Amino acid sequence: MIIYAIYFMVTFTLALLYIYLGYPILLWILSFFFAKPSVKKRNVYPNVTLIVSCYNEEQVIQDKINNSLKLSYGEEQLSILFVSDGSTDQTDEIIKQNESSRLRLLRVDGRLGKTECLNRAVEFAKGEIIVFSDANAMYHPDAIKRLVENFYDQTVGYVVGLANYSDNKDSLAAISEKSYWKYEIFIKKMESRLHSVVGADGAMYAIRKNLYTKLLPTDINDFVNPLQIIEKGYRGVFEPDAICSEDASDSFEKEFGRKIRIVNRSFSGLLRVKSVLNIAKYGFFSFEICSHKILRWFSPIFVLGLLTSTIILSINMIEPFPLIAILMFMFFFFANIGYFLSENNHVWPIIFAPYYFTMVNFASLIGVVRTILGRNQITWETVRSKGESNKISVHYVLLLQCLLLIFMFIVLPLRLIFWSFFFVTFFVYFGYPVILYIKSLTHTKPIEKGDIYPTISLLISAFNEEEIIEEKLLNSLELDYPEDKLTIIISSDGSTDRTVDIASKFVSDQIVLYDYKIRKGKIGVILNTVSKVKTDIIVFSDANTMYAKDAMKKIVRNFNDPNVGAVSADVILENEKANFGKSESVYYRYERWIQKRESEIDSIVGADGGMYAIRRELFVPPLANTILDDFVISMNIVINGKRLIYDIEAKGYEKNLINNRTEYLRKSRVVAGAIQALKNGQGIPGIKQKWFFFAFFSHKLLRWFIPLFIIILLVSNVLIVFTSPDSNYVFPLYGQIGFYALAIIGMMIPKLNNVRIVGIPFYFCMVNGAALYGLYKGLFNKQEVTWKKFSRISIQ
Predict the structure, then answer these.
(1) Which backbone phi and psi does 793 adopt, to 5 degrees?
(2) Given Cys at both, which of 33, 94, 405, 672 links 777, Cβ 3.0 to 4.6 Å?
């Protein structure tokens, strides 16, 4: 078996090296010795029809129309035909407004797919040459000229232009695709010199009209159409001087779906025109097809074979394969981090490149499998569509996690894994607090408090709060703060109960009501309302948080210190009726102790959404889809150089959710929002902020991933006990089993949760179970921006 594993590993490694490095190098070498004669070009002006395919392109269609009309090709020789695949937005109306003798609209009803639309458009096309284009591809003025001059050579059947990606997007997905495209352009140039470029580019390619053969709806036109032309004895060339520009995908999710569609339809198309694989008839072109396309599509199989053989050889400790396994472990580690940070545009290539590679290969695998199963995609969604829903497959990310864990358990000793995750977990809950305590003894930053009375807006976000809104407004009116300096704003996020009716009775010079009819979530309320606020300070509040009478005075006195940008209050949970209330109280006392120390040293990591205040001029608007608004808003203030401090004397009282399920969902939403913030790069401090970055890393980032750490801790402990005679690890295993057994008892007999020996394990497991669910929702974008309203009165 070991011999076979070595054989397969070498074979798969050589195959992958050939696909990505060997083939381009071979093309370059062969181009010096076997290049075909240069194409005979001449300035010729045959009649040309530019066919632009579109579906719901209202964002770019006017720009495309203007661009097409400015092309420097004879007006009498150039016709422009827009073909719409049953667009449901304003695309068709915009085109109709620009119709003329040169520019026409062909609408195809029934959403038949791009290929069928092109079949019908070609029937209406005039002239000898057809140029195919996408709606978002903007041509250089001489692009048509440069394409057409190649057709003076009677051996040329199709010409592919150079599509450049514009620089107006700096997302990691766009950067990755641009880099990959430069690599592809080099290959196209070499293929064109030796025989023909393999396939075309839907953004810009031209053909002789008489060579067009009607395509099947499942065909991808810019691949199958060139193959059909090769079948007829013509060649296809690459014209780098015919240039257009288009936007790259702005997210990995959109690029993932696009690549699945391309591979799926290209593979099925090749199976239909498989005669081009006859090397005796088509010579070097058949070799190009196999090397550039078929092997590339099947590279995921080679990757999986390489991984499997490496695992087998590493388990058997055959040198140097354990070292190779370590390198693979690092590769998948970076690929995982790349996924987590895929929406953060400031990440090093060493992180996002492995992620892009694995994503592309997994997309290829899905495309190939779908073709084999006979599932071919016909219609498409533009990557500019708001309805785009090509989500990264859950199975892909799970595969990444499994590969990472497999290689971790192979390359690292089990004892090292166990103790590493034990000490990380220990550090999060005990080590970090000890470091805080020691540092607070010698390094503190006193706050210059003062009796000041800046103007304040108390912003209360509400959704269906009829149970509590009257009490909240009465509580706000009783605050001991000058009436002329305090404005109370109640903002309803599309409430459907009596919240607005009740609040409207309180409207006065001091109380303002904003009734937003369309529900956008709390962040939508905040973004809409803060722009209308003119006061010095904004205090953000939940509707169920009641303030102590002097709370406003206490919280604003901290702004006497010019270094303070935000203040988080002490929100006390009134949750004694809940069966986990005592355990939760212990947890929050622990959290408040940490915040007090962090505040003394520098800044706390994130404010309490129930009650926190900021200087209005320091507000940085978060993204409109932000889930954890209080974290992002408050952290942005620290990132911009001001302190976020905790005032234990500014009291608020909150009736917390009072059953297991609702508390579980609330905590999972918090973690999902935190992961979203991490992915978006919102509210995340840079490493240059030294101590604060350390606090964020220790207090929040590691805490969010604790559920994974304790699972690995348990699994490694089990493996050690069952694979080693070392009895020293039996006691830790029994300890973990006993701890989780108590948690299960607490789940089955809720009344026992008020006994700490049961309640603490139960609450710990419930919180971390919620965090694990939150990780899932955050990583796969499953958490909605809007929040669900739970009753705060009834106990379930």
Answers:
(1) -105, -55
(2) 672
How buried is residue 119: exposed, middle or buried, by Cβ count under 10 Å (0-12/13-18/19+)? buried
Per the CB < 8 A criterion, the answer to whether 458 and 486 are in contact is yes
Distance CA 295, CA 284 (A): 16
Task: Give the rounded distance of the alpha carbon of 370 from its chain centre.
Answer: 24
- 78 φ/ψ angles, rounded to the nearest 5 degrees: -115, 120
Does 320 sit behind a cis peptide bond, omega within 30 degrees of 0 on the bond before it?
yes
Residue 49, H or E segment: strand 48-54
Amino acid 117: pLDDT: 93
- How far apart CA 267 and CA 300 sit, in angstroms, is 15
Q: Mean pLDDT over all residues of the chain?
A: 87
Backbone angles phi, psi at 414, to 5 degrees: -60, -40
Residue closest to 82 by CA, chosen among 103, 111, 112? 103
How many C-beta atoms surround the C-beta of residue 67 within 10 A? Answer: 20
d(CA 314, CA 182): 36
Listing from the earlier edge strand, what are the strands of the sheet with 545-547? Answer: 511-516, 486-493, 456-462, 537-542, 611-615, 564-573, 643-654, 545-547
Which H/E stretch holds residue 120? helix 114-124
Residue length of the chain:
796
Q: pLDDT digit string (tens) for 325-352? A: 777 777 877 777 777 666 665 566 667 7
Q: Supply the pTM of this predicted model.
A: 0.61
C-alpha dist (Å) from residue 238 to 123, 146, 152, 246, 284: 26, 11, 15, 18, 16
pLDDT digits (tens, 9 = 90+) for 116-145: 999 999 999 988 999 999 999 999 999 999
What's the per-residue H, E or C state across 323-344? Answer: HHHHHHHHHHHHHHHHHHCCCC
- Which tokens hold the place of 301? 């199989």
Give the angle 438-443-444 at the CA atoms, nearest 5°. Answer: 110
Nearest residue to 325 (alpha-carbon basis) of 334, 339, 338, 312: 312
499-543 pLDDT per residue, tens: 999 999 999 999 999 999 988 889 999 999 999 999 999 999 999
Looking at the DSSP bridge assignments, the partners of residue 407 are none
3-class SS of residue 461: strand
DSSP string, 206-248: EEEGGG--PPPTTS-HHHHHHHHHHHTT-EEEEEEEEEEEEPP
Higher pLDDT, 109 or 390: 109
Instruction: Pull the structure tokens for residue 115.
Output: 């290929």
**Cα(363)–Cα(266) distance, integer angstroms:** 13
C-beta neighbour count of 398 within 10 angstroms = 10
- Residue in the structure block whose two tokens are 């592309």: 360
Contact (CB, 8 A) for 647 and 555:
yes
Can you tell me which residue has the tokens 């904003």? Answer: 514
DSSP 8-state code for residue 53: E
